[in-house]
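User: what does the whole thing look like in 3D?
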Amino acid sequence: MADNGFTPQPVGMPAGPVVVRRDRSGLVRRWLWGDVRSRLSTGFLLLLVAIALLAPLVSRYAPSAQDFDPFTGPSWQHWLGTDDLGRDVWSRLVYGARASMVAAFIAVGIALAIGVPVGLVSGFRGGWVDVLLMRLADTLLSFPGIVIAIAITAVLGPGLVHSMTAVGIVFSPSVARVMRGQVLVTKERVYVEAAVTFGSPPWRTVLQHVVPNSVQPVIIQATFMLGLAVLAEASLSFVGLGVQYPDPSFGVMLQRAAQFISFKSSGVYPPGLAIAFTVLAFNALGDGLRDALDPVASTRRRLRRSSRKAKRP
Amino acid sequence: MGRLLLSRAVTLVPTLLLATFGIFLLVRLAPGDPAVALAGENATQDQIDLVRHQQGFDRPLVVQYVEWLGKAVRGDLGTSYNNGTSVSDAIAHTLPTTLQLVAGALLVAVVAGVLAGVAAARRANSAADAVITSASSAGAAMPSFWLGLVLVSVFALQLEWLPATGYVGFSTDAGLTLRQLVLPSIALGVAGAAEIARQLRAVMIDTLASDHVRTLRAKGLGERDIVWGHALKGSAVPLLTVVGLQVSRFLGATVVVEAVFGISGIGTLVVTAAQNRDYPIVEGVVVVLAVIVVLTNLLTDMAYRLVDPRIR
Amino acid sequence: MSANAPEPLLVVSELEVRFRLPGQREPLRAVDGVSFEIGASEVFGLIGESGSGKSSVARAVLRLAPIAHGSVTLGGTRFDQLRGRELRRHRRRVQMVFQDPHESLDPRMTVREAVREPLRLGGGRDGVDDRALECIERVGLDSNLLDRRPNELSGGQKQRVNIARALALEPELLVCDEAVSALDVSVRAGIINLLLSLQQDLGISILFISHDLGVVAHLADRIGVMYLGKLAEVAPAESLTTRPRHPYTEALLAAEPEARPSAYRTPRPPVIHGDAPSAAHPPAGCRFSTRCPYVAERCRVEEPALRPVGPDALVACHFAEELQLAGRRG
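Assistant: Here's the predicted 3D structure for the full assembly of 955 residues, as structure tokens:
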């Protein structure tokens, strides 16, 4: 996260194909009862989504209403105080949450829309197509993502949709790699061969057997990516290329707070902490999903953690 | 070694070509007609056509790319749309600043990371280790620009130990510049330090438990010599890998950190250019960064071979 | 050599299957010239050690492995030459039951969906559910299993689902590739008996591949013995087990474990000496010459052809007529 959202491989994400859990039933049930962290983070995220959706109801004033004293601290009328133009920080934060969540989903949506088909084709076809596509992906991944995103945004023009599309494009190679890895494993499975013996045409075999059994790691990665996308939005909006001021978003609020930091240095905390908690929540959710889907590796992790604790004198 | 280096360099050329062609293509695909932008708002159709012809926009894409490539290799990266300055000049003006910042961040990352990693490895599974490990997780999770803001808020504004923003340059005032670089370097470098600490700790724990080290201990070699002499050398290769990765990450993160600290480096340059749809500058910056990334990979490779002669 | 009907259902002629190994110039000849026939409603067993090529024969018949040479004719049609949509249309005529019951089923599909899949592909839309139910019940499974997923079934149940699914398209030939090898011994009998009764009821032919001679002898009408990519002997099950004509067959029969502990009181010397040669570099002459207890000079030089010996057997051995080989003890 140090590079503000553009790390291609989220921390803890397996580099190779993931053991796909064989049974799908009870997945949700198992994960919900599993880890306290998962449950907490799911709760937090649901709350966040609710707040974002219900923004007009949850905020107390309009995000652009400037009728108040600037730079006040937390009070009964203004739970988080007011900003440089006297706007209520809580209200702006609520609407900002909405913008940031939308931004994250746009970016991840685009990344999946590009990455999944590319990974599918690359893994299933193999041969020179695979080599070419993966070389392209690796090249893209070796550059600082934010710079590529800025370049793409320069071409498309600033704004929420354009900048997050650029972020989605930057994220797509790692989606493609994960998908390809899983497809390589899945296409060798006996049930895929069985489908061939029934006379299933290739496109149908792919859609019915290969894709559904390959998407689980992609879903996990998408969850981590949502967190990274929130960070990316914050970075790009901070430099003026994402959400455009005066529309609120976590990044825009951070930028304004930074500009007026000498007047109210605490202004950076509401958006900053909001970002931090959102990212941590998405990470915890991703961890929880990954453990629920791959109980073998999760047991190993748990044993490693507890053995470390046991070794302490 | 020279031959190996050459062969590695040769394989990196296609990467560079691919990257530069990619960005070239991207910019040419942009909506809007650059000829119109250059000619100005009140230009007549003839004037626009003239500009288009002068700039070569009416030639086939591949020809344009080859021409551009030829100029780029000679150091001419075109001229800015906005104020007509040479792109190479603009970059030459701002790149050193960024490089100084990245160097500072690397210093912070390596020093703090190695110290923390070694400390954690030596006291593996103790309370101190847990503290260091959680601190690095927190450090890794924090976006650098927020860390920068917090640092400014605490150290510059409240404690007034260090300047908040600005960068004057070593030629103007070396002392002030150094102080100006402290907070940004920390902001940029902390996450790198966390990553280095994490990796180094893992590798060192294995190394310190190895038979080789046990033999050294049995021979009576002091713990300090073992840790800093042998174990660290053994961890050099993965360490180099992580450090190499950090350079690329820093180059990205610098974009935002420069904005926080008001430093006009290459990050600020490209952001401003993006806001103004000044494509030649964007192109130029991407190309220069691509070259830097490729060079870093090359250097890391060389360093591998120097450190561990066993590698191919 | 066909059992009942005059026209054989499956004719495999000079079949060759090769695999390219990474780093080797010479391809591995997994199947190196194999010919046999299966008649309608006949059970043909194909046995051999691992590496004998028997699974490759099965996969070639199903067009799952590339055929380097030779032909596979199914009821008059050159099955090996079909492609594209034509091939897909003909595929329903030969179906396979794979070795691993669990891997054969898509973990995300219920039993109902798994059995419906081939039916849907066959083109039917109506009556698919009824047909699926029929298939499930015919293999001895209860209809309440229809909504279960593979991880909720036992090994035997899964294999029955695989059989149901394979039979859904009413194939003419069913290929079982080690179909019971991965099951508990106690479960095997049930599956074997199921296959037998299905074969009798539906009149399909079965190509049953296994390394276990005991199982195959129980099931098959005729048996083919494969060694290192070629057939050593083909004969009716009864005569193969009581009066084998190839030294390798004799050795296989001798190696079968017996249920009488007294038989093991005196240690018995192994009938075969040495290890199997690598399939990538078969020995010159007869392939079995390196391990054959009856080997002669001629065997090392000249490769014996598969030829008729006696009333009903095909044997690839120079001395098939002379050798008096021992069949099953007791």
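In plain terms: The first helix of chain B runs from residue 2 to 28. The mean pLDDT of chain B is 80.
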